Amino acid sequence: MSYLIRQRIQTRLKAEEGAYRRPGASLRVGLAYPNKYFFGMSNLGFQTLYAVLNRLPDTSCERFFLPEDDLLAQHAPGGLCGYELGSAARDLHLVAFSISYQNDYLHLIPMLHLMGLKARAQDRGDADPIVLAGGPAVTINPEPIADFCDAMVIGEGEEVLAAIAEVLRGGGSKAERLEALDRLEGVYVPALFDSGYGASAPLRKATAGFGLVSGRANGPAQQGRFVRRLVVQNPEIPLAHSTVLTPDTEFGELYLIEVQRGCQWGCRFCAAGFMYRYPRYDALEGLKRRIDHGLKYRKKVGLIAGDLLGHDAIHEILGYIDAQGGGFSPSSVRLNAFTPEIIHYLRKSGNKTIAIAPEAGSERLRRSLNKTFTDDEVVESALRLAEGGILNIKLYIMIGLPTETEEDIEALCRLTLRTREALTRFAKRSAQM
Ligand code: SF4
To answer: What ipTM, to 2 d.p.?
Structure first.
């Protein structure tokens, strides 16, 4: 490892709070994020798996990231090392990629190369670590990288990691380990998955015999061979929160707390809503404990949820954060759920800009997405925020949606101008908008 690489890793480790370092463990895991440190450490799923793996008995988990451009040339093939212990990937039992975005699929092969591992799963042997992939992108669409992975986790990974670790602890040849992994619920082993069709088979046959994600999470076997999508079942496993705090992330000022997983609204474009079905909110008491913990490290907590304001104790949660002298930043809010109390806490927490999401310009197109807000509701929502003192309002709107017409684009322009017009009197009063 070059001096510059070592120096960068050391500087980062010194700036972190909460990292694990477990030398001497009998099971050695590398958790890889197929992008740079900044993005990996901004990812709550990656952080959660890091904590889960390091809390398994006699297990160490080190982080691997794609090097920054300025250090890429200094990494020889096989030279990418774990942050915590400096281990080479080929000396580990498991290399697990946590992949949130399909764009990062392009980094998988370069990272395997930098780790000194053959790209294709079939070319790796008994002495190589098992290469596993999981995360939202893999759950939605595993096939583009199936040839490069020994196994893939479909769905939520928190619970199945312990079972995967047990399989690897049991040893055996690569073929034996893969067969054991293949028996685990939610684990897809591409080499052992016989879809029952060849390249020339008609689509009709393919769809009858092959499916990755069942209609029901952890549901019973369906016709054909299905890998079932995992949903955390153990109520003792909390939703996610920050594990390693570092200023070198998108959310360096925040302690992140997942308040909700899944979402009840079922907007048709939304992966989070479908991938994490069914919707779950953390209960108030558990949230209070996590808020207390987070506020020891940061002045503000980041509340992560698809529909944060849909929590039935949202006023109590925000009041509790305020009473502890902290603030909060919301990830996502439904535009028709603002109350004066919520706006008060938003403002008190220093949130100067709020994004509301009509998603489409016309009511017709919105209905087709399962977003049933009317134009009036969009404008009223912006007005409520402005009356509460929040004058910077963003509208999230997608263009290019299926069935979109010129009329929808014109409606988008009208809605934007109407919202702007409605806010003008506040802008005049405060000389800002
Ligand atoms: S409300 Fe938000 S999180 Fe829920 S389904 Fe719609 S877009 Fe997704």
So the answer is: 0.99
